[in-house]
Known about the structure:
This protein is of the alpha/beta class. The chain has helices spanning 35-48, 83-91, 134-142, 187-195, 220-227, 259-267, 289-293, 316-324, and strands at 2-6, 27-31, 58-62, 79-81, 99-103, 105-107, 118-124, 149-155, 176-182, 204-210, 247-252, 274-278, 302-306.
Amino acid sequence: PIIHIDSLDEPVQLDKFDVIPYQQWRGLRLMYKNEDDGHKYFEHLNSTIQTPLEALEILSIWNEDEDYDPEEHEPPLSIHLQGGDLGTLSAWQMPNLTCLELRNVVPLAPLQCGNVTFFSFGVLDKESNEGLSLGAFRRLLQSMPKIQKLQITLTNVEGTFDDASTPPPALPDLVNLELEIRGSTTIFVVNRIMELLNTKELTRLALKLLPNVYVKESPFDDWIMAVFRDRSRPTHGEYAPYIKLIDFSLEVQLVEGSCKAFERMFRAMPDVRNVSLVLPKNINVFLTEQMRQEYVLERLRSMQIMLPMARPNDFSVQFAYLNDF
């Protein structure tokens, strides 16, 4: 069974943990709204559970609703697990855990789950993320060396990851990255996250760029430059940081992008076969004559372009450019 504990809209109910013996849990999905509730849960679990948790395959810890919409509600402050709560979680031996989801709940220490293949990590915080360091996040990633798919969501993340640079963790099996950048997240934060990833081994990249309505200057170009920079070269030139990428998808809302940003993006993936773009109605897809002459996207097999907010005629002026390309 998978145990679901949700106290976002209900009082803390510790007795739910005891309905089924923890030795039989295949999954634990824990949702709570603040550190006080979380402390009650971890205190109870610490007194109940003896590891290893042999049956546990799925662990989700959230402090936000699954249907949370940052455009309609203020995001909850992220919870940094510390002290006894962190000690409890980091002490759990989870040898068969394959799926770990941490949504706005941030452990600042390695975990004992070396067989995780899918890791989802999200931070939603308009305030300074005190204590969230690049080194701590690296150590967390390194404790899961078999990750194949990594999902990262950053919403309004500004004052964090400001410690010294650190070498990327060894994640030899990582081939699938889903990166969602929202709100007022800064280019500095995106750069620091990307420093930890070896993009040259990725075969699939799903990228969402969703700024706030009230952002005066478009962050699209800055975010694109940060994600598609080649960090293996001292000059950070426009080379191919996604040399093995086969499938690429991009969703953009509210902003327009420049020719330079699109060109950097497409040049970064010389082997890409399938491209899917979800774009705002006024954006231009820049596929230039120079790119064609230099064989950019020469292995492309399919390109899907969707403009959900546009009328059929809004895109007609670009048909000629696409046809020429």
